[in-house]
């Protein structure tokens, strides 16, 4: 069974992530969307919130499982019998960081492959941080995140009084 992992902070999931998930699930038997618990980026959405948003966005995808992990990704992958990491690449600017991660992970576990998918051109400008910036400043996030999570994202900022 080909088990792949799509790791990230998903703070929050965007339509760019969703596109990679849809394409990756066509190539593997099971895709684990793995949400990093402790993150140096200090996520805006709590782990529970990020998982709830993922559950809503991925509810009709039988091959997809949502898990959270802490510590090293390769250790999580071993526990799950997963063989490959799948990542999306938007632009050259992503490459340096992703190359470093892929080589570090290869050094930690030579059995694990990191595979990259080029982003859908329609989402090449999209990131979770851009969605957060728009939501915080009252911008339109239609078409950038799955419809079912849009209100939750906007409400989060209204609740914190951060909407300008
Ligand atoms: O969505 P992000 O923030 O780009 O995701 C980064 C993530 C979660 C893929 C990366 O930080 C990660 O794999 N963290 C786990 C720790 C780890 O294994 N680091 C790589 C070797 S030092």
Lateral arrangement of strands in the main beta sheet:
3-2-1-4-5
Q: Ligands bound here?
A: 4'-phosphopantetheine
Helix content: 40-55%
Q: What is the arithmetic mean of pLDDT?
A: 95
Number of helices: 6
- The end-to-end distance, rounded to whole angstroms, is 49 Å
Please describe the biggest sheet, giving its number of strands, its sense, and whether it closes into a barrel.
5 strands, parallel
Please indicate the percent range of residues in DSSP E strands (runs of 2 or more).
15-25%
Tell me the number of strands.
5
The CATH architecture is: 3-Layer(aba) Sandwich
What structural class do helix, strand and pairing data support? alpha/beta
Instruction: State the CATH superfamily name.
Output: HUPs
Any overview of this molecule?
The protein is globular. The chain starts with a strand and ends in a 5-residue tail after the last helix. A 5-stranded parallel beta sheet has the order 3-2-1-4-5, with helices on both faces. α2 links the parallel β2 and β3 (64-69). It has one domain (3-124): Rossmann fold (3-Layer(aba) Sandwich). With 164 residues, it is an alpha/beta fold. The protein contains 6 helices and 5 strands. Bound molecules: 4'-phosphopantetheine (PNS). 4'-phosphopantetheine binds next to β1 and α4.
């Amino acid at each position: 069974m080909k088990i792949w992992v799509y790791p990230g902070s998903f703070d929050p999931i965007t339509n760019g992530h969703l596109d990679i998930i849809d394409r990756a699930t066509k190539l593997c038997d099971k895709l684990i969307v793995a949400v990093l618990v402790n993150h140096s980026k200090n996520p805006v959405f709590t782990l529970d919130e990020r998982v709830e948003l993922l559950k809503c966005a991925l509810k009709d995808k039988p091959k997809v499982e949502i898990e959270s992990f802490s510590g090293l990704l390769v250790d999580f992958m071993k526990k799950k019998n997963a063989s490959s990491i799948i990542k999306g690449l938007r632009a050259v600017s992503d490459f340096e960081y992703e190359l470093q991660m892929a080589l570090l992970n290869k050094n930690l576990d030579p059995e694990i492959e990191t595979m990259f998918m080029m982003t859908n051109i329609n989402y090449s400008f999209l990131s979770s941080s851009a969605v957060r910036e728009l939501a915080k400043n009252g911008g339109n996030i239609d078409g950038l995140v799955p419809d079912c999570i849009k209100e939750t994202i906007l409400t989060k900022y209204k609740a914190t009084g951060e909407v300008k």
